[in-house]
Amino acid sequence: MTAEQIIFLLTGVLVLGSAFMVVTVRNLLHAALWLVASLFGVAVLYAILQANFLAVVQVVIYIGAIAILFIFAVMLTRRQLLESGRQTRSSWWIPALLGLLILIGLVSLILSVPGLDRTASAMPVGLDTVQALGTALVSPDAYVLPFEVASVLMLAALVGAVYVASVDKK
Amino acid sequence: MTFWNNPINFIGNWLTGVLTSWHMPAALATILLYIVGIVVMIIFAMTLDIGLVWVERKVVARFQDRLGPNRIGPFGLIQPVADIIKMVIKEDITPAGADKIVYNIAPVLAATSVILLWAILPLASTIYGVDLNVGLLYIVAAGALGTLAIIMAGWSSNNKYALLGAFRMVSNMISYEIPMVIILLVPTILANTMSVKGITQAQSGMWFAILSPLALLIFLISAIAELGRSPFDLNEAESEIVAGFHIEYTGMKFGWFYAGELLHAFTFGGFMAIFFFGGYGGFFGLEKLGFLTWLNIPFVQALVFIAKAMFGYWVIMWVKYSVPRIRIDHMLAFNWKFLVPLSLVVLVNTAVLNKVLITLPSWLYVLGMFGSNILIGWVTIEILRAYGRKQRKAGEKPISPAQPQEQVA
Amino acid sequence: MSIPLTWYLILAAALFCIGLYGVLSRKNAIAILLGIELMLNAVNINLVAFWRYLNPAQMAGQAFAVIVFAVAAAEVAVGLALIISVYRRRKTVVADEIDLMKW
């Protein structure tokens, strides 16, 4: 058990444990806060994978914007102060069974492909991942087209969200 | 490497030698030394924080033409200790109906998000925690954690004033993150790297404050908004919502919020020094002279850095104690309608001019960048003046003399 | 790196299934969106793990992950705006009760 494996196992426990709490707690705001913990664990995973730009961007976007958006939405749509009644549907065992079956299927698929049980290939020396990512996102023979389409998507989402959530002045 | 050149690594190596001579496995010694280093950095930051309490109270007193604390210790230097003792012995209350766990974690998270920033703050060329190659974004990420702490505090207090204060504060902070991130791209472009140490080293030629003064100004404004200090302190508006999100916090929990805010202000002063004033290097270029090379010793560099950070902190305090508070809708309109377009213009201007002027001799480059910033500033002021003139004209309708009532014949 | 790739893939699969259970079994519309976020994060972990383990010099994995970030953010923004708008009219966020268009 090397130190890396221990860190990975602890982070995995954080991610999966928090995700389980997200889908089971009654209080919706606590669920949003458990989501924050889970997303932070995912950021730690990215840092272990040496994708440090993605790790920091994960914290900035998911925790700094999306989680806060969730918390605001939860606060703006409370019918009464305490959550009462069931939070999960009465037929909850069907999704649980489905999830379990899909998990077993995916795990057996992963373990059956022979080449996947490998350790990481070496990181090329002197590769600056941030600079390489930046060049890949704007160079014409790399990924500039999905990048531009994503920015148009964000513009559409921005206008749409502001319009849909605005109070119409009758 | 000697002690004077590279103190942290020197001490680290010596301690590793001592620990392994006690037959400790090397991996465990490394982890132990990491933990010791982290604790020492945190102790340094928190001790500085205690000093900052004194600085804040003395400076606000002088701005308000009074003396400030001067009874306890010479010049009131022991005052922060008295403050801390007072806060520690206060009763620790959790209001009824509050969400206990979230309520107690919020101040810890707020202070943690500030101490996390000290991991990448370079005090000298060899005294720093870690040199991330995405240091700039790490700063924004740590700010995001602070925002989360505020909303946790506001919601879990079970108090409508706290909730209102938290809403306003969080909408303020996430709005002003945008011009801050856009402006933080300006040092990135000028230095070609996002790492904090790299940006400091790239300023050995010319400080970025001279290459881009508008960026400095916008960073100052958005930093003050991020900190939640006046004039953007809707949270602590005692006359409006009684104390915002930390109404229900007493004793040491409030102490964590307060100490975190002061340390955050000082840390942003430090970042202003790093991104725009040359950080630990650059004592006006004097250290290149032969007889002043002792200015390159890490401890002297650390003192230079702390002096520059104190200057930045003093500017932030100066703004705080001179300017009245801004209303929330004015604040947000100022951000979305003025700061964001202006910061985009500054960014595009810096990017284009950097590419175009980089081949010219350096004095022409500096003149070009500085001149373009002055030009943008002047055009902006002219636009604002025209807009203000138009608004004044629309507001001042000529007051017509009272018309005689039409006779109803 | 002593961690085999399969560990990351199994972690991502487990996160995906937990998100799937959250989406299918919760009543509150916002809780369903929380489950969708978990699923998107699982996909991202997969992408980044494959990037690192197979060919770190080729940036396709990270670029794809960045686009998934953007899509997730856009989707959450629009989804929550819709939920808030529905709440204003129908005073409910329970997914089952938003059934005006059912026959």
Average pLDDT of chain A, to the nearest integer?
A: 87
**CATH structural architecture of chain C:** Orthogonal Bundle
* Major β-sheet profile of chain C: none
* Total count of strands of chain A: 0
Please count the helical segments of chain C: 3
Do you know the CATH architecture of the largest domain in chain A? Up-down Bundle
Rg over C-alpha atoms of chain C, rounded to the nearest angstrom: 17 Å
Q: SS-based structural class of chain A?
A: mainly alpha
| CATH topology group of chain C | Helix Hairpins
- Anisotropy-based shape of chain C: elongated
- In total, how many domains does the architecture of chain A comprise? 2
Structural class of chain C: mainly alpha
* Low-pLDDT residue spans of chain A: none
Largest interface chains and counts: A-C, 89 and 75 residues
How would you describe the overall organization of this protein?
The complex is a heterotrimer of chains A (170), B (409) and C (103). Chain A has six helices and no strands. Chain A is mainly α and 170 residues long. Chain A folds into two domains: 1-81, Up-down Bundle (Four Helix Bundle (Hemerythrin (Met), subunit A)); 128-170. Chain B has two domains: 1-86, no CATH class; 90-389, no CATH class. In chain B, helix 6 runs antiparallel to helix 9. In chain B, 67% of the residues lie in helices and 0% in strands. Chain C is mainly alpha-helical and 103 residues long. Chain C has three helices and no strands. Chain C has one domain: Helix Hairpins (Orthogonal Bundle), CATH 1.10.287.3510. Chain C has helices spanning 5-25, 29-54, 60-90. At the A-B interface, helix 2 and helix 3 of A face helix 5 and helix 6 of B.
